[in-house]
Predict the structure.
Amino acid sequence: MDIAVTGGARLRMAGLSGFAALALGLGAAQAEPAGGSWSTAAPLPDERTEVFMTTDGARLYLAGGFAPGEGRPTAPTALYAYDPNADGWELLTDLPEGVNHAPMVYLDGRLYVVGGYREATFDPIDSLRIYDIAEDSWQDGPPLPTARGALAATVHDGRIHALGGVDLDGENTGAHEVFDPETESWSSAAPLPTPRDHHAAASVQGEIVVVAGRNPETELLRVNEIYDPESESWRSGADVPTGRSGVAAVELDGLVYLFGGEQFDPADTFDEAERYDPAQDEWVAMAPMPTARHGLGAAVMDGRIHVVSGGPGRGLTYSDVHEVLTPKE
């Protein structure tokens, strides 16, 4: 079933046998608007969910995830770049293989795809895929010490922090591993206090904020844990107002913005957009996303937050939606 939305984007909901999390749901809970306005931009060229996205400040880069197929999802390898001046997407060199539930970060002219699940499966991998933007080419980096999918990653002080996820035993891990591009090596750091998956991380005000997600004990985590690289220690921040998983988060002007998510019982997706101020340890609700979804990508360009793709229903559902939040006080 296709559902038309503003801006020409499409949503697709598909029930696919043989996979977990297939029951679908719409009708996300509504957050009270506290600021910001939404607009639409050019939709992604194809429908996906569980994507990864980042920016170099000039363009968005989106890849990976699931796409609809005949009876089961496929694993798209296309890497797209979005130019805000042209309001259009460009196809770049494909990923070496399909990956879903992986984070992608930008650092010094390169994109880094960390771990994830292989192809259209839920098999964790340890790969570090590195894309050179100037060369339009991929290469393999040193493997992630702990293979895992549905993890989070962020860049702090020139290094990439990989946090949490699901390991090869199918268990949540608190693994916190740090990649240094200068030495092309990984090291271990203080583990994430609450092992989880489908969470998000952002580097803000000299620290790393890790929010939301899920684990076997709690489907919809409200956990907010903050890592101080100087003391190599964690502390708890104010709980996320709306517990959810399958979220995306970004930093803008010293604040963390958290978008979307899903839950399983009842089957639903979230349109929540919430903002966290680490200095005040406070959350406020922003204007809700026009399209509730999970497994989405988010990135900042020119003071606006682009939120792209993701599943409009719980589990394996797809969209090409591209919505843009312009925050305001």
About this structure: The chain has no helices and 31 strands. The longest strand covers residues 110-114. The chain has one domain: 2-326. The two ends are 38 Å apart (CA to CA).
